[in-house]
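WARN  no MSA supplied for this record, continuing single-sequence
INFO  ligand: NDP
INFO  echoing inputs
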Amino acid sequence: MPVNVLFSARPELWPEYEALMHLYLSDAGLDFHLATDIPADQVDYIVYAPNGGVQDFTPFTRLKAVLSLWAGVEKISGNETLTVPLARMVDGGLTQGMTEWVVGHVLRYHLGMDQHITLQDGVWTPDAPPLAQQRTVCILGLGALGEASAHALAALNFHVIGWSRTAKTIPGVTCLHGKNGLRDALSQVEIVVLLLPDTPATENTLNAETLALLPEGAKIINPGRGPLIDDEALLAALNSGQVGHATLDVFRTEPLPTEHPYWAHPNVTVTPHIASETRPVTAAQVICENIRRGEAGEPFLHLVDRKLGY
Ligand code: NDP
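INFO  complex generated
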């Protein structure tokens, strides 16, 4: 009997994934059937995105695993109808894209690019920016994406502080964890990057209390998830000058409603959840490797801890 793989994600992605998965599953020597429509009780694996339509997993009686195309799994992790393993996406292309986006936005702040554009108005301010080694950047979240960004910034000589739930050792990065670690990190950074998952424990990581720890005028970059920041507290901190500027890619409600104060705020840059995305060429390999593992009785890669939510 073939391995039945249901693709449940945006339909326009299907032709590219179908071709790539066909290639990789054939290379793995599997007998398989890939489709966007398979009777639920015959499905072995679901390639999943929240916008693919599957919400109730109860009818999938022989399901072996759900393989997410997204790195963030907050929309499925708490789904009580899902009783089989859930793997999230760790994709080299997604990671590379995020690293480029984070480094670009950190450099924008570090080099003061916006200020120097005022040269066009005839204002001549010959203040060269400091070197990266004189600038402290903090990455909240040292997972697949946070660690890669931390490495890239450390390679540019930034003083990088990373913060995670558990203790870590990363060469060139000062690693902190726990509540006290967050206090230590925030009290000395000029640029904060959020790459935490959206879980009950990470909600409002940046709130009135933690924002007050930052040196005045600190910059915030959020490509993680909207709920990581208390929006009211951030707006208050922006208005008081406690936070100098924020670049926000993700929001509690997406698309960001047109009336939201972030759009018009002079010290906020809004980007439309484009920091990075899963790249089919590399992601299809990760999905197919997990199907191969499932069929060989080997442990799945990148399993989500459903209790922790990431
Ligand atoms: P990972 O699961 O690999 O890493 C998560 C990191 O967050 C880990 O270091 C983890 O700590 C840390 N963490 C989790 N909970 C806590 C906590 N309570 N306190 C402190 N640290 C915590 O995730 P990824 O790096 O792959 O992705 C991060 C997020 O990026 C995704 O969840 C998603 O929301 C977002 N994303 C955004 C995209 C965009 O385009 N804007 C694209 C892709 C992802 P530990 O290491 O100790 O477990």
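Residues 76 and 263 are 29 Å apart (CA to CA).
INFO  checksum written, moving to next record
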